């Protein structure tokens, strides 16, 4: 597993190495960032971060700051080690917390430009997590959700509209963006 684009392209990342953590293949990660236009400027939230691969890829491609959230202590150690290896600890906040506690602790000022959501496939928390985070997405922000391919998420959740969906082997990537009601 490596960084596939940006200033750290080609750098290998440490993996968590547990069956409970499913790493995203480099090819899928590259496809996701191609769907996003290649660069990811702004503030990133990587929920269910695992090794931090999505968020660290975003940092490599121009993001200002990454908030990486995971409940597993081995995942937290891995994210910190990867951040240290890239020399990016100053631009990364690692939060060792269960996703529900994190969501409940958010306040109105917590806004993100990109939100990566990659829960374990057996956790059917999709709509709950999206509904909880939709008000924390900046107006032009994008929410990226990874699920198993059998899961089809709704085309709209509140003011979020599904803009792209792609299937790669056993996984489906779904992108949401806020709908600007002033344009309708």
Structural account:
There is one protein chain. This protein is α/β, with parallel strands linked by helices and 184 residues long. The chain has one domain (6-151, 169-178): Vaccinia Virus protein VP39 (Rossmann fold, 3-Layer(aba) Sandwich), CATH 3.40.50. It has helices at 26-35, 53-60, 73-86, 99-105, 126-133, and strands at 42-47, 63-70, 92-96, 112-117, 137-148, 156-157, 160-168, 171-178. The protein has an eight-stranded mixed beta sheet. The protein is globular and about 40 Å long.
State the main characteristics.
single chain; 30% strand; Rossmann fold; 184 residues; 8-stranded mixed sheet; alpha/beta
Quaternary structure state of the chains depicted: single chain
- Could you say which overall geometry the principal axes of the C-alpha atoms support? globular
Strand order of the largest sheet: 3-2-1-4-5-8-7-6
Briefly note the CATH topology name. Rossmann fold
